[in-house]
């Protein structure tokens, strides 16, 4: 399976298409290339797993098993934001004995320390090249947070009369 196939399974075609289209538009604006050239470059980079194209908010990345922990001491990173120059990540490491990387509170759960509004000091900005030491574990695109049509109370039950 190609990496694009993996991404499609992970987040679905619509979310992946939206993400890649945004990258294409950005490339066109930055480098003034044709749309077809931009699509070609972006899809090739995405299929190769290039974090410069793939990195986005709401992703969790785990350290590659073959990467030395000295080189990447934090085993998991959560991408909070994509910026023009890189990514803002939260360290998802609850081991208080990990020197220099533990920035959280013992009381915070792993899944919530990056999201807690009152949690400060657990984020840092890096270039996307940091993610070359990691592999994408999960991605929760914004679309997954939206209510479904049936969940917002505007669907008339089958057989019910119009009011």
Helices, by number, come to 5
Overall 3D form? globular
Content-based structural category: alpha+beta
Helix content range? 25-40%
Give Rg in angstroms: 19 Å
Specify the biggest β-sheet: 5 strands, antiparallel
Distance between the termini: 51 Å
State mean pLDDT (0 to 100 scale): 77
**Unreliably modeled segments:** 98-121, 148-156
Question: Count the strands?
Answer: 5
What is the H-and-E element order? HHHHEEEHEE
In terms of DSSP E residues, the strand content is 15-25%
The largest beta-sheet arranges its strands as: 4-3-2-1-5
List its traits:
163 residues, alpha+beta, 5-stranded antiparallel β-sheet, 5 strands, globular
Task: Report on this structure.
The chain is of the alpha+beta class and 163 residues long. It contains 5 helices and 5 strands. It has helices spanning 3-11, 13-31, 35-47, 51-54, 110-113; strands at residues 59-63, 76-82, 87-91, 123-126, 134-139. Strands 4-3-2-1-5 form a 5-stranded antiparallel beta sheet, with no helix packed on it. The chain is globular and about 40 Å long. The N and C termini lie far apart (51 Å).
Summarize the structure.
30% of the residues lie in helices and 17% in strands. It is α+β, with helices and mostly antiparallel strands and 163 residues long.
Secondary structure layout:
Blueprint: H1 3-11, H2 13-31, H3 35-47, H4 51-54, E1 59-63, E2 76-82, E3 87-91, H5 110-113, E4 123-126, E5 134-139
């Amino acid at each position: 399976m190609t990496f694009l196939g993996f991404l499609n399974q992970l987040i679905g075609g619509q979310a992946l298409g939206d993400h890649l289209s945004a990258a294409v538009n950005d490339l066109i604006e930055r480098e003034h290339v044709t749309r077809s050239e931009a699509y070609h470059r972006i899809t090739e980079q995405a299929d190769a797993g290039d974090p410069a194209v793939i990195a986005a908010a709401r992703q969790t990345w785990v350290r590659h098993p073959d990467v030395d922990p000295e080189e990447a001491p934090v085993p998991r990173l959560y991408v909070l934001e994509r910026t023009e120059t890189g990514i803002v990540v939260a360290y998802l490491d609850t081991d208080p004995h990990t020197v220099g990387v533990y920035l959280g509170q013992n009381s915070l759960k792993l899944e919530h320390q990056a999201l807690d509004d009152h949690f400060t000091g657990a984020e840092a900005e890096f270039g996307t090249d940091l993610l070359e030491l990691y592999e994408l574990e999960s991605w929760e695109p914004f679309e997954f947070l939206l209510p479904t049509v049936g969940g917002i109370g505007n669907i008339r039950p089958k057989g019910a009369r119009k009011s």
